[in-house]
Amino acid sequence: MHCEKCGQLLPEGVKFCDKCGSQQQSYVMSPVTQTQSEDQKRTEPKYAGFWIRFVASVIDSILIWIILFVFLIFAGIIIAVVNPNFNFNESNPLISILYLTSPQ
To answer: What is the pTM of this model?
Structure first.
């Protein structure tokens, strides 16, 4: 870049000439680079569609029921071992369910 008035060779982006002091009209501003913080770099999470979420919900429900069923079987076995004379028919309905789900 050269000075518009005196022709002095100038570095890019200067506003005034070092030799004559005239203001340069066509100075090129260096681009301002902004660094993004970690919060700005993060993008919004992309959520799965309805059917994928529905299938995941069904799978979760099945797993919960399997875990509950296994728990009830073990609870029935523990009750039967601890008190073999326990009458499951005359007690709480939950105990009856445990009795029905435990192996006989």
So the answer is: 0.39
Dihedral of CA 53/54/59/63: which sign? Answer: positive
The span from the CA of 5 to the CA of 12, in Å, is 16
Express each pLDDT in 27-54 by its tens digit. 545 555 555 565 566 677 778 889 999 9
Burial class (CB in 10 A: 0-12, 13-18, 19+), 76: buried
Taken as a whole, the chain contains a residue count of 104
Determine the Cα–Cα distance for residues 28 and 76; give it in Å rounded to an integer: 83
Distance CA 80, CA 100 (A): 12
What's the CA gap between 56 and 73, in Å, rounded? 26
Q: What is the C-alpha separation between 48 and 18, in angstroms, rounded? A: 61
